[in-house]
């Protein structure tokens, strides 16, 4: 009974004290697809991603009712760091949904304008950024005027003199951002200003963390997985290791209740639990202390303990093919250094195109049919069923004019249409494609979708194409998965193979490119395009890492280009700008900034490259 | 020629001087730059400035050598040779401008080779004539290197015969002047359009294939000058031409609202 009354009271008081307008709330998800484009247009760094932030305590005085209800001590504000733009997950500040939506756009414009190097405090910086926005964007100024005017009645005017002066200064700055005003000093932090950026954005815990070089990549991957799983950013704090050997969590029981997110080093084993409970705890914490200790978790170690038993592995086809590899230290090709093992994905049952891809596939088919060359009349043939009248008239006219002209080809023919183009798509399916991309699922999922849709599109336009996937375990086994051969018809068996793709192992890109080049060179087409779909740098368990892998891949690309192929790389790796120009040349690659849009990027690219 | 007859062109740098020097030294010029940044207008301006007749050919993928050089036609039971634009330009000692030259078939550009080195001659196979280009003749070609198109590039043997000028969208002050003059709007409105153009260009290569061109900004200005509401003018001139995707269009409208919202 007590519980029931308590819960009921809690709900009632919370609802009465809550200051937002849930009925007019706008969620970040509603504008998620426009947000990145808008932010970039405002001058925001194109490499940044948009994420939702969590509430942070603001420390300002709350209303009595809020204190009774125990809410209102946190507020979600927007901010930006080197990796991401953080926006509140939902905004329900105003009773009007249109205003809440406009607030999102305002925050993005402000964040794009905010200069981290600008001196001055939070107050001055926000005022300056606001003034800059208003000066340059008169349309946005109208929006801002509406937002600011609607905000003022929602703010409390404190009774204490110093707090009152502070609040008045903020109001003045909101109304007149062009005028330089200083924030009067006050013991109490000011009420949060939802129109401005975060007063003390967390300093990017990851950035300061000095990492061991060796496992940086593995850790990146792990943290990415965590990030994209939750897509939330917690205020991280860099902690120095507490030197006390055995910190006690509970010195005094009552106190510990209030201070439990203080960092205390507890001597306990690094366990490998699921992260689910940690996530809930993190939600409640104000600060996550990120600490390095000397222990490693096994999952970070780079062992390949997961070699499958033969019965469960993909089906190998034949004994394998030996290929050379480039050793940059010796500046020469080492013959027979890598073994390509062609394989068929195991358990691939014929399957139809998944339901969710049908609308997109239909659209692509229509679009690519337009690319298909029709059977067009070809003029000026030496033989053919029709006479080329134009040419005949021209020829007779020239002969009549007295100039001696040899008889040109004077017939028309209807040769089968063909752009004489062959395309091989090589997809990286190494273990890194297992990582998550938020709602879109795993990278491998996006790659599967891209392959499926790409195949639909190419079937529609009639170009010859082959689909292959690859991964590697050292140089002895570069697994080259046949998804669709050039000679094969694209049917449910191929779709089944694509759907059966699973991530695994490493990325020995050079060998895969060399083998793909060989296959592509066997195709009788005038122009042969080698498209590579990748999600990161070349790497493998042995020395195929860093420079060695990059140089070998570069060499393989150069060989392909010398052989007359057109290599081109599509990647979802944001850091690709660091190494891809070296591998493929400045115009030889493209980065899909939003991996979820990879299928669209890939097909549009193909149409653009060849259309 | 009176100054008013010279098409308006706002120089962004020393391109006019470079062009004039190249003309005096009888060197062919290659102009590269994105769509709608003023390449064609520049050539028209320079032709008028130098007092040369201008022969423009827009290249397409079916353009043959005969289309450039000329062909025999039948006129009243008789046959008559008819000069193509290139031959006309050589005979008149004028300026021949091949727009989007990469679109032309690869074999077409080969007829340009003897014209673009020190021989400066044009052999006409069908009439057996060999034309020597007069000092006034100049060949100008242009193309847009922005498209990542593996199948369409200029052959190095052709490229290496030209003095090349790289064009880009003009600096904001210059572009503002262009929009004001060409669009017939006041400076304040022109500034807003130029800033909007700058915002849209940030999206080139990521969300859009190419950013808004100066030409589109001028279109938007002209629609406004003829009385169209500013937002709608921007929508039809600056958002719709750039993308077909509903999400991108919605974002572009939000960007337009930052300049022309109410």
TrEMBL record, chain A:
CDD domains (alphabetical): vWA_norD_type
Domain of life: Bacteria
Domain called VWFA: residue spans: 422-605
Residue numbers spanned by region Disordered: 192-241, 270-293
InterPro entries from the UniProt entry: NorD/CobT (IPR051928), VWF_A (IPR002035), vWFA_dom_sf (IPR036465)
Alphabetized Gene3D superfamilies for the sequence: von Willebrand factor, type A domain
UniProt feature, compositional bias: Acidic residues: 272-281
The protein, known as: Nitric oxide reductase NorD protein
From TrEMBL, chain B:
Keywords linked to the UniProt accession: ATP-binding, Nucleotide-binding
Single GO MF descriptor: ATP hydrolysis activity
Domain spans labelled CbbQ/NirQ/NorQ C-terminal: 175-258
Domain of life of the organism encoding this protein: Bacteria
Positions of the ATPase dynein-related AAA domain: 28-162
ATP-binding among keywords: yes
InterPro entries attached to this UniProt entry: ATPase_dyneun-rel_AAA, CbbQ/NirQ/NorQ/GpvN, CbbQ_C, P-loop_NTPase
Family: Belongs to the CbbQ/NirQ/NorQ/GpvN family.
Family annotation (PANTHER family): DENITRIFICATION REGULATORY PROTEIN NIRQ (PTHR42759:SF7), MOXR FAMILY PROTEIN (PTHR42759)
Record-given protein name: Nitric oxide reductase NorQ protein
């Amino acid at each position: 009974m007590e519980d029931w009354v308590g819960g009921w009271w809690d709900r009632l008081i919370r609802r009465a004290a809550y200051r937002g307008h849930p009925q007019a709330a706008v969620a970040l998800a509603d504008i998620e697809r426009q947000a990145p484009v808008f932010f970039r247009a405002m001058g925001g760094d194109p490499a940044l991603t948009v994420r939702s932030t969590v509430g942070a305590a603001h420390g300002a005085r709350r209303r009595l009712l809020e204190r009774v209800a125990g809410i209102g001590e946190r507020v979600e504000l927007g901010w930006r760091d080197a990796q991401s733009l953080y926006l509140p997950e939902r905004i329900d500040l105003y009773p009007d949904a249109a205003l809440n939506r406009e607030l999102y756009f305002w925050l993005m414009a402000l964040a794009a304008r905010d200069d981290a190097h600008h001196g001055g405090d939070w107050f001055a910086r926000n005022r300056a950024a606001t003034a800059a926005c208003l000066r340059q964007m008169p349309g946005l100024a109208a929006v801002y005027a509406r937002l600011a005017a609607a905000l003022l009645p929602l703010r409390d005017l404190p009774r204490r003199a110093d707090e009152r002066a502070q609040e008045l200064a903020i109001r003045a700055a909101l109304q007149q951002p062009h005028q330089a005003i200083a924030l009067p000093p006050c013991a109490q932090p000011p009420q949060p200003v939802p129109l401005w950026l975060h007063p003390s954005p967390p300093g990017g815990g990851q950035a300061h963390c000095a990492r061991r070089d060796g496992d940086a990549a593995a850790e990146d991957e792990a943290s990415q997985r965590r990030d994209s799983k939750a897509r939330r950013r917690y205020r991280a704090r860099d902690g120095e290791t507490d030197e006390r050997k055995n910190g006690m969590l509970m010195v005094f029981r009552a106190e510990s209740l209030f201070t439990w997110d203080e960092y205390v080093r507890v001597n306990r084993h690094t366990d490998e639990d699921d992260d689910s409970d940690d996530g809930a705890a993190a939600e409640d914490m104000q600060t996550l202390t990120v600490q390095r200790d000397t222990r490693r978790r096994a999952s970070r170690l780079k062992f390949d303990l997961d070699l499958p038993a033969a019965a469960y592995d993909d089906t190998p086809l034949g004994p394998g093919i030996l290929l050379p590899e480039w050793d940059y230290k010796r500046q020469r090709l080492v013959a027979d250094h890598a073994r390509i093992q062609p394989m068929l994905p195991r358990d691939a049952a014929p399957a139809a195109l998944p339901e969710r891809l049908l609308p997109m596939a239909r659209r692509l088919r229509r679009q690519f049919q337009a690319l298909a060359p029709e059977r067009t009349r070809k003029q000026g043939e030496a033989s053919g069923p029709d006479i080329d009248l134009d040419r005949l008239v021209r020829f007779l006219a020239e002969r009549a004019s007295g100039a001696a002209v040899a008889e040109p080809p004077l017939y028309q023919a209807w040769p089968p249409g063909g752009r004489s183009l062959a395309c091989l798509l090589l997809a990286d399916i190494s273990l890194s494609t297992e990582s998550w991309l938020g709602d879109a699922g795993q990278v491998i999922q996006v790659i599967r979708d891209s392959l499926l849709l790409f195949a639909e599109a190419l079937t529609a336009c009639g170009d010859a194409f082959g689909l292959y996937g690859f991964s590697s375990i050292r140089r002895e086994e570069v697994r080259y998965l046949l998804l669709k051969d050039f000679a094969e018809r694209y049917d449910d068996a191929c779709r089944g193979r694509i759907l059966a793709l699973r991530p695994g192992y490493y990325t020995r890109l050079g060998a895969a490119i060399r083998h793909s080049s060989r296959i592509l060179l066997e195709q009788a087409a005038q122009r042969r395009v080698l498209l590579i779909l990748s999600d990161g740098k070349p790497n493998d368990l042995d020395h195929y890492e860093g420079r060695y892998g990059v140089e070998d891949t570069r060499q393989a690309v150069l060989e392909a280009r010398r052989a007359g192929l057109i290599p081109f790389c599509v990647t979802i790796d944001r850091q690709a700008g660091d190494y891809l120009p070296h591998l493929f040349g400045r115009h030889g690659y493209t980065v899909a900034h939003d991996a979820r849009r990879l299928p669209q990027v890939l097909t549009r690219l193909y149409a653009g490259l060849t259309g | 020629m009176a100054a008013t007859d010279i098409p308006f062109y706002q120089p962004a740098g020393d391109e006019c001087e470079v062009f004039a020097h190249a003309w005096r030294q009888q060197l062919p010029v290659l102009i590269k730059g994105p769509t709608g940044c003023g390449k064609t207008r520049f050539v028209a301006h320079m032709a008028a400035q130098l007092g040369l007749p201008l022969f423009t050919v827009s290249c397409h993928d079916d353009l043959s050598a005969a289309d450039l050089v000329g062909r025999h036609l039948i006129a009243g039971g008789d046959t008559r040779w008819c000069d193509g634009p290139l031959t006309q330009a050589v005979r008149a000692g004028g300026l021949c401008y091949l727009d989007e030259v990469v679109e032309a078939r690869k074999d077409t550009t080969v007829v340009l080779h003897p014209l673009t080195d020190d021989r400066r001659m044009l052999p006409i196979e069908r009439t057996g004539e060999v034309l020597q280009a007069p000092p006034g003749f100049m060949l100008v070609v242009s193309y847009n290197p922005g498209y990542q198109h593996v199948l369409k590039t200029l052959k190095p043997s052709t490229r290496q015969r030209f003095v090349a000028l790289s064009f880009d969208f003009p600096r904001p002050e210059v572009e503002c002047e262009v929009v004001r003059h060409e669009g017939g709007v006041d400076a304040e409105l022109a500034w807003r359009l130029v800033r909007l153009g700058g915002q849209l260009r940030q999206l080139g290569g990521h969300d859009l294939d190419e950013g808004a061109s100066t030409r589109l900004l001028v279109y938007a200005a002209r629609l406004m000058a003829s009385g169209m509401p500013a937002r709608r003018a921007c929508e039809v001139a600056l958002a719709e031409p750039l993308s077909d995707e509903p999400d991108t269009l919605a974002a572009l409208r939000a960007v337009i609202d930052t300049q022309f919202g109410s």
